[in-house]
Batch of 2 targets.
Target 1
Amino acid sequence: MTTLYYALGACSLAPHIVLEWIGAPYEAVKVQYGSKELLAVNPAGAVPTLREDDGWLLTQAGAILEYLAEKHPEAGLSGGDTLRQKAEAHRWSSFFTSDMHAAFWPIFMPFRYTTDSSDAAKQEVVAAGQKLVQKQLGLLNEHLEGRDWVLGDGRGTRSVIDAYAFPMIRWAMKVLPEGIQAYPHVQALHDRLAADQGVQAVLAREAAA
């Protein structure tokens, strides 16, 4: 059985949602960052970490999401099979990994970005991070105009990329002073995902674990 190691509030929420959408048996194990349990399977002490029955391990959210989409084509979560559809999926996976996710680090860990230990310096770093997040949300919001999902045109189809977006949108709602009200298409994507039964099941499971 596939096993996912996750942490509450982390981007591991994305593969957890995808596993639920797929519907195949899996186990979700809640861990703490840097814990002995997690370090035993991932020396980096990070989530998500995916383990297969034969002991094979895969880390990094984008890689895990792509792997799950390819492993379970019957779930229809890859975003498409043509060369350009695959390129679009890679594009947006890279966007969430390298642009959106990275924009939150100054907010979550401001001490990494300044040698000044004063609260004022850290607040400046956080403010800079908030501006980065707003920039990325603006790009995503523009892309989502006229779309129900990140990939495809118009209504499109739900994919692993939407699951990848969900935890980061939730972060933005918490850390931006005015939330995401300035990004209506991002809000609509959030609401569409939040209403999904699989997403609700995962959120409830993680909250109760």
Target 2
Amino acid sequence: MILNELSPYVRDLKIHASHGLTPAYIDPEHVFTYLKSGHGFFIMADMQYAVQPGDLIIIPPYLLHIINCCKNEPLMQYVIHFDLQFDPDRQGSLPLDEGMNYARYCELHGNFFADFPAVVSVPVPERRRVEEIIRRMNDESKFQAPYRELTLKSGMLELLNIFFRCSELNLTAPRRAGCKTWPNLERALQYIQSHYHEPLDLAEVSREAGLSLNYLCRVFKDYTRTSIHQYINTVRLVEAKRRIAADESGFKEIAAECGFSSVHLFSRIFKAISGQTPSEYRDKIRSTELKSKPVPTNKLKH
């Protein structure tokens, strides 16, 4: 595909903050991220990028990636999921193709961004423009404005133009050279993602990765800046938060279905990682939902 054929289709746009370490993500579409504030690391396949405010990141489909924020400093991100072109067969939410991975995807479809850096830095004078474009796109999407697809497409083209120009200026984020054992780590990450709800045995994880347990723990810590135990707890906690926000299940049930051996352990880890108890988190979610509901108005009778 050449630039003149580029006609991006925006699937989703969100503005959110990441705290600490995230689980490994794999998306079936391209992901464009602008960092509004915070510092941390984007781990994409076998590369680590030190990221900071003003950075733009593009992640191709099916590329496994992890985000690790600096301690006590959330990463405020503007995230856009998009396709390079509109395809009527790819509308709505896309499930992951279980038989697909990044290498296979590139074989079938290529990587449009292969000749560009994954992370570029936007000059300070240009950052306000980036934020204004994304806010405009977010407003159009949020309020379901008529013909919003055209606004989203034009906004995405503007953002990609900024990305391409910044890449020509060599404004790239510092990165660390790849890890030779990345394929092994990727197998470990995917195994944890698939079995987090079970009582995970690290010996099983190491066998799946094809590394000795001691070596896996050392490489995992060196590359992700966290231990395997901490990562497993993070994956479980993310799912637990999703469950708490989505339904009224009891904490004992949620703890068991997310892989915690007891509700007491679940509460202790929840508090240690998120800074609040499960009950406090549920109350906060309910309070936010109530505030977002429209206030009914009383009709005056004549």
